[in-house]
Amino acid sequence: MSNTFGTLLRFTGFGESHGPAVGGVLDGMPAGIDIDFEAVRVMMRRRRPGASPLTTARKESDEVKFLSGIYKGKTLGTPIAFVIENSDVRSADYEQLSHAYRPNHADYTYQAKYGIRDHRGGGRASARETAGRVVAGALAMQFLASRGISIKAETEAIGKAASPDGFDAEILAARADADSVGGVVRCVVSGCPAGLGEPVFGKLQVMLASAMMSINAAKGFEYGCGFDGTRRRGSELLDTPYTDAEGHVRMASNHSGGIQGGISNGEDIYFRVAFKPVATLMRALDTIDDCGNSIKLEMHGRHDVCVVPRALVVVEAMAALTLADALMMSRK
Amino acid sequence: MSNTFGTLLRFTGFGESHGPAVGGVLDGMPAGIDIDFEAVRVMMRRRRPGASPLTTARKESDEVKFLSGIYKGKTLGTPIAFVIENSDVRSADYEQLSHAYRPNHADYTYQAKYGIRDHRGGGRASARETAGRVVAGALAMQFLASRGISIKAETEAIGKAASPDGFDAEILAARADADSVGGVVRCVVSGCPAGLGEPVFGKLQVMLASAMMSINAAKGFEYGCGFDGTRRRGSELLDTPYTDAEGHVRMASNHSGGIQGGISNGEDIYFRVAFKPVATLMRALDTIDDCGNSIKLEMHGRHDVCVVPRALVVVEAMAALTLADALMMSRK
Amino acid sequence: MSNTFGTLLRFTGFGESHGPAVGGVLDGMPAGIDIDFEAVRVMMRRRRPGASPLTTARKESDEVKFLSGIYKGKTLGTPIAFVIENSDVRSADYEQLSHAYRPNHADYTYQAKYGIRDHRGGGRASARETAGRVVAGALAMQFLASRGISIKAETEAIGKAASPDGFDAEILAARADADSVGGVVRCVVSGCPAGLGEPVFGKLQVMLASAMMSINAAKGFEYGCGFDGTRRRGSELLDTPYTDAEGHVRMASNHSGGIQGGISNGEDIYFRVAFKPVATLMRALDTIDDCGNSIKLEMHGRHDVCVVPRALVVVEAMAALTLADALMMSRK
Amino acid sequence: MSNTFGTLLRFTGFGESHGPAVGGVLDGMPAGIDIDFEAVRVMMRRRRPGASPLTTARKESDEVKFLSGIYKGKTLGTPIAFVIENSDVRSADYEQLSHAYRPNHADYTYQAKYGIRDHRGGGRASARETAGRVVAGALAMQFLASRGISIKAETEAIGKAASPDGFDAEILAARADADSVGGVVRCVVSGCPAGLGEPVFGKLQVMLASAMMSINAAKGFEYGCGFDGTRRRGSELLDTPYTDAEGHVRMASNHSGGIQGGISNGEDIYFRVAFKPVATLMRALDTIDDCGNSIKLEMHGRHDVCVVPRALVVVEAMAALTLADALMMSRK
Q1: Rounded to 5 degrees, what are φ and ψ at D38?
Q2: CA nearest to B15 within chain A
Q3: Between helices A308-329 and A130-145, what is the axis angle to 10°?
């Protein structure tokens, strides 16, 4: 719990945004898996800040240093620890924030819970923390790939734009207004065998919802017909089973989203995650400080206007950790 | 995991729809709490089938028998076990289903996972299982009430009807068409102190999403501005902190849904759950049996047309278990 | 934790000595296992009070009622709940104890922890609770038997008697003196494959020690050469590996007790458990009540003089739960 | 499980003996605790190899690098990650071992479990791994100290020597014989309040036994009267409660070892741990390689003859992690 995710495949993350490093320990990976380090780097690059004019200007090389659990390129079955240094840290940007409660941030709640917080860059509440998840997810994805399972997330909407050719304009317009936008990510898991998920509290959709709602800025999760399905009749959503040419059970449609009764049915698993607009706005805001005094806050620092472009790979990473764990739980 | 929910307050459920009983064990309840058994019965009555013309005709007295953990009306701090007998069981209704894979049900997936299943009334996959959750939730709610926390779920939509005066008509129309409808439940937690939730994987929204997505027929979860918030600008969703007359930190609005950075901020926590239309339709359906042969299936039995009216109390129960656990985790 | 034991195979126990019932829920049992109910009864009879002149006179039929998880004699893979009623309850025997802190009992500590306790027969701290463990262990043993693994516990010492022909005399002498005696149980697991145990904190000896130390009156655990091995040289304890006729790796001796580096090596696993003398003595004792006043206490009720004869089957049951869990964890 | 220890205070360890580093993540530490880094170093020095002529010649500076969870010398309540580099690694010493199964080592069992292993210096099975535990334990001890709880382990026996003035001679004699010896560690926890421990499977002795049996070379655990108590009468072991001058409940003696019914009673908690002789002997040994061929093995490398001197601080560290977790679980 807390900073550990998973049951048989367990990722434990650590790190503050402006501390020495972020990283994690992935425990429970099967032994003997060949690790493709370049594939890890490719996933890290997709999450990296500063990679596009649409994302924050913070520059992080995000070099991953593995400390254990891999020998001669193969997993040992022992915990895989890794560290990613925080290099481009400009804590001075945050000095004026050391006593402020930024609106829609975790400043007040961390203070209320812990009585102390690292205000620099959001500390532990920063999305910088997801760098560790991406490394772990990249490893999990290699295990899944060896079992024929693949995962792909894509942008479904940015703000009011629901088609790819409108996405950039939404982000640029928000930035021009010193504002921010949200969006929706759609993710599909293909090649998953029937039988994954542990009823009743470990249903596959429960595991996936936990994974997704743990990502910063996620406000909603739905799978299969989702919220839209509540407005339709049962007869419109029937997934009729049939036997295919190889004798496998298949469904003629997939309103269920690949999961029935909490257990995968062999069809594609698909789900959507809602991400709210970034909370940090490049304008003056009214708020209070930690003594309760009203203050006017002017935020600087380097911030995304929309988390969706960089969140895609985090969604994939968390889905990979979830599916790999479910696969191990199912003993398949 | 699996059939246990929670970390410090742990509910373990058991029971098949047509087996001898359903029930559970609630472990971790604080000692010395006075149990109001009538309040448990009131919650059970709200979930009970046969209570309204809008719900299934199955009649269950749903008498709860407590076996341990309570002495002279007070909790002992030891596990509270309870049993609810399955009395009105008509398994014969299900004989023809013993080899059928009902569309949109868990028949095929349970078979794929376990290689065996209790086909009578859906077995473990039946919503009958939630009776145990309601008992446990009723106990958790009494602990929460003693700390000033209350929980209330209400119907927000049934099918295409988004206002209370249209709800019954949607259900009756669906029944008349031998069809079914879904709906949306909205739930509010009031009186929750700031500081609940355990970043990063035990964020309060993660715990709530797990709880809700474990409920039968739930297809989506959102809190605060949810999916709708993805279409709005960050500046429209600002919750400005201020200091109230008593010197407490409050938010001028509540787009965040009472949670920031995974931790409660003292405002009302609110979330929505999407429930799909009931899968069982009172009409002939095409499907296959467990040998892969095409069959025509005519379902009888006694079934709800819409789960929402009875799901309200299950949502409250699961929210109560979640909040009580979060409260204990926070040591507040 | 608390009242749940195990990771993939999880036993959750409940019940006070003089409450309505004791019992449990066994979650995670593989599906499709034929349950031999008579074998469960045989194990329950070995634990049952009143079965021998050497044990307590309390009479319990210990009829086990299964409530879920088994259909047509086979496990479903869903939680198996069961209840054992407390029938021969003479709570009046305990009235004078309602405010007393019996020496070496859990009366004071339960009061200190919970601020309340069920004083009747020791409440949750009574060994009556182990009845549920024996049922669960009997089920686990059937799973193990199907994989060629067997478990056998035997008495190694009673008080100062270290050979079987002295055991009864030690017990009878203690009873004649209104006193009690302890003893040592030795348990052997045969047929266990190499590869069980999860380093570093889930070593097989860690799991076994947890299981054994959770049994009432257990004061020590050792495996392999144990405490005695601390007085010997390394060269005396060498277990030399060799290849047997079938090409399997074997050890020429077994000072390691079948576990090396926390993982089973395929040899017999053996360990010992120390049980202290029963705390309840049939004589007048000085103590205090829950107001701190000095009192003279005369205990009645029906009590064993030595727990060892009835503890054997509890040791086997807990070992079975442990090994079955380890087997499932190992995916073998 | 596996590489994580604890429930609310969770230590996750990682690292192979000859990999880049060992270390860990301590999650759940209360926020706002001042960390005394020098106290951490002092504990590390007690574990460090090469510190005495009686221990291995491997030299490790054992510099601890903290990566997260501490800000301006205070804990943040977020995970505390730390790394200790492996500097004095002479893997070449182990080349001839890459295919050998050393007697009484984890070589064969790791190979049987994982199908792969890092043979250099024992890999993950090496006691090098305990360096991470000592750091975490040192932090836990500072939390305990702030609550008035202290922990002290001492050597009770080395081989056949049961008094301090014989200990060194036993070790030197064993080394002269190219042999090794074991010993017994006794540990006392003082200042612990009544009420710690979570019946029935989270009894305080269960938690302590788990902690101790997870240490390399530990073969036995006992608390209070332990194995010796099995040979005594109940009347000899009575701990009579009384009320002291301040009105506190105390026990006139402490055969119970500070725990009754799995819950601390406020007296000193004491227990003993048996450590076997070191498995590595500086002499030629018969064994087999991983193809099953008989081989003669001559071990070099740098090894302790007796683990006890360096194990003392590991026992203290694991006891500290256990008690801190129990304290947090008890909400005291």
Answers
A1: -65, -35
A2: A200
A3: 50
